[in-house]
């Protein structure tokens, strides 16, 4: 039976789950939600307000990690995302948890900060992130005019800069892992790789299906995209999408 993935169009945790579904070669369809009152429908469906949520044969599962574990269990014949060896599995799950904790809360703020520097990009990201019905571009732009000065308030600026530094440090670690092992936890992609790829979606828009920003593929946070040290990570991510994800 087809799996239903509930997401916000630009939700990076939802992209993480979408990549898991692609990696395992499972059939799915996407139901788009918008942040705001629309979340009442998610609350009714899953008892909480966040995406991603999946529905499968009467089961409703929320939280990207729980969904990953559910998929491993429910589809034992599909391509595994977790090694069978206990020690290696623990390493994958530990890295996945750390990626969620480090990238999860920081990436959206960094991406929004970047988009606020470019009125057109902000308008594209803002309208895409709200899903359907489309929010008028002018309204999104007006929100940007109000929000942009806030990024210069010293406390806010400090937090955003700290977020950039922390995320960069994580990405450098990922580059080292890739250089040494091919993938993050060994010679094969695992749930940790799908997590890193999904959660960095807003740092550089990937070339993939169901992308709500097709005109912006390859764009994102210039400081990261143009950093030669991080080039290895984004090249690796492009290859992962091309070779392992439909
Ligand atoms: N731990 C959750 C985090 C999910 C999450 O933070 N989702 C964001 C979108 S990327 C969300 O739904 N935010 C809406 C809200 O907090 O109301 C997971 O792994 O799925």
Give an overview of the whole structure.
With 246 residues, the chain is of the alpha+beta class. The chain folds into 2 domains: 72 residues, Glutaredoxin, CATH 3.40.30.10; 159 residues, Up-down Bundle (Glutathione S-transferase Yfyf (Class Pi), Chain A, domain 2), CATH 1.20.1050. Helix content is 57%, strand content 7%. It contains 10 helices and 4 strands, in the order βαβαββαααααααα. A 4-stranded mixed beta sheet has the order 2-1-3-4, sandwiched between helices. A hairpin with a 2-residue loop joins strand 3 and strand 4. The longest helix is centred in the middle third of the chain and has 30 residues. The two termini are 19 Å apart. The model has no long low-confidence stretch (mean pLDDT 95). Bound molecules: glutathione. The site of glutathione (GSH) has 13 residues, from helix 1 and helix 3.
Annotated CATH architecture of the largest domain: Up-down Bundle
Kindly report how far apart the N and C termini lie.
19 Å
The first-level CATH class of the largest domain is given as Mainly Alpha
User: What name is given to the CATH topology of the largest domain?
Assistant: Glutathione S-transferase Yfyf (Class Pi), Chain A, domain 2
Strand content: 5-15%
What is the overall shape? Answer: globular
Topology readout:
Blueprint lengths: L2 E5 L4 H13 L3 E5 L6 H8 L6 E4 L2 E4 L1 H11 L11 H30 L3 H11 L7 H11 L6 H28 L9 H9 L22 H4 L5 H14 L2
Helix pairs in contact: 1-3, 1-8, 4-7, 4-8, 5-6
Bound molecules: glutathione.
Main attributes of the structure:
246 residues, alpha+beta, Glutaredoxin, Glutathione S-transferase Yfyf (Class Pi), Chain A, domain 2, 2 domains, 7% strand, globular, binds glutathione
């Amino acid at each position: 039976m087809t799996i239903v993935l509930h997401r916000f169009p630009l939700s990076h945790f939802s992209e993480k789950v979408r990549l898991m579904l692609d990696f395992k070669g499972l059939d799915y369809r996407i139901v788009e939600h918008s942040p705001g009152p629309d979340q009442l429908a998610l609350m009714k469906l899953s008892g909480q307000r966040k995406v991603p949520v999946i529905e499968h044969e009467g089961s409703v599962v929320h939280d990207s990690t729980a969904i990953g574990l559910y998929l491993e269990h429910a589809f034992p014949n599909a391509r595994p995302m977790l090694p069978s060896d206990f020690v290696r599995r623990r390493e994958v799950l530990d890295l996945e948890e750390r990626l969620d904790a480090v990238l999860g809360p920081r990436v959206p703020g960094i991406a929004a900060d970047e988009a606020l520097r470019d009125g057109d990009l902000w308008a594209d990201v803002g309208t895409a992130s709200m899903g359907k019905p489309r929010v008028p571009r002018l309204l999104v732009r007006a929100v940007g005019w109000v929000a942009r000065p806030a990024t210069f308030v010293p406390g806010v600026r400090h937090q955003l800069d700290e977020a950039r530094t922390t995320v960069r440090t994580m990405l450098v670690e990922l580059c080292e892992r890739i250089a040494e092992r091919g993938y993050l936890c060994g010679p094969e992609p695992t749930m940790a790789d799908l997590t890193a790829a999904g959660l960095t979606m807003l740092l550089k828009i990937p070339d993939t299906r169901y992308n709500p920003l097709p005109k912006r593929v390859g764009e994102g946070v210039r400081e990261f995209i143009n950093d030669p040290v991080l080039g290895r990570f984004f090249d690796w991510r492009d290859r992962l999408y091309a070779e392992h994800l439909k």
